[in-house]
Amino acid sequence: MTKKDKPTKKYIFLKILGALAAVFFILSAVSFPLRTVCYTLVSRKVTKKVRIVQISDLHSCSYGKNMKNLINAVDAAEPDIIVLTGDIFDNRTDNKNSDTLLKAIAKKYPCYYVSGNHEYWGNMWETFSRRAESFGVTVLQGENVDIDGIMICGASAKSDIGDSVKVCADNADTNSFNVLLAHFPEKIDFYRSFGKFDLVLSGHAHGGQWRLPPFMNGLYAPGQGLFPKYAGGRYDFDDTTFIVSRGLSRTIERIPRIFNNPELVVIDILPEGEDGE
User: Does 3 map to a domain?
Assistant: First the structure.
């Protein structure tokens, strides 16, 4: 090799820089730090600010010793209401992390919980629902609860979900701000068909697993297939605001998350004319 053919220091430096950039890119893509995502809604149906925290698709994953990382994030949000939109427990684990979380948050905040598909698989729903109730969590399966003008409506994730949503709609108060908790986002057109729900909160899609913002919001979601329309985020319709949590599971999937952080969702509902705090 002649002197002219030998790699220059600049060339070697660029190769090392490129390799480091590639490693950084890969680590960024598959890292799983928890993030808090905030949304704001305005409605003439509320007279004061209400903050809802949505927890979804935990699948009993760990968030530090005694679930402190997730509990601290919940406490930092200072919720008025916590809603849990399914797959908090998982039929494939011992669910100790879920137990720890529910015990902690139910002592501080009113918590309302609807089932996901994993709570029903393995005929475990009765066990899981009793455990949640024993911690002070209110389980809703086709039932509504009014909290100072906010109507929390909970739909079952069982095969009779249609009947469950219909019962919620029939019992909704048009003068209240009606929030439907329903695990499956792919059924949003059905939820909207009742014309009763101001806000619908779902999970299940896990953010589409792989994301490439802003080009691809999700690669695959159960019930929606490839390139799901409702992988995660906020979707505004004329009659309804629809929010799909990307969920909190980060270790149990066969398909890893890529550019798809687990998330805690915070929703502020403000009266008309109020700008914020």
Answer: no
For the chain, the straight-line distance linking the first and the last C-alpha, in angstroms and rounded, comes to 70
Residue 201 belongs to some domain of the structure = yes
- Note the pTM of the prediction, 2 decimals: 0.86
Q: How far is CA 65 from CA 62, 88, 96, in A?
A: 8, 18, 12
The CATH number of residue 52's host domain is 3.60.21.10
Taking CA atoms, 242 is separated from 186, 199, 203, 259, 262, in Å, by 11, 6, 11, 22, 19
Could you list the residue range(s) of the whole structural domain that residue 99 is in?
Answer: 34-271
In a domain, 162, yes or no: yes
The helix (run of H) or strand (run of E) holding residue 102 is helix 96-106
Helix (H) or strand (E) holding 14: helix 9-30
**Mean pLDDT per 10-residue run, the chain (277 residues)?**
59 56 45 89 96 97 96 98 96 92 98 91 85 96 93 86 90 95 96 97 89 79 92 96 94 70 97 70
Domain assignment of residue 181, yes or no: yes
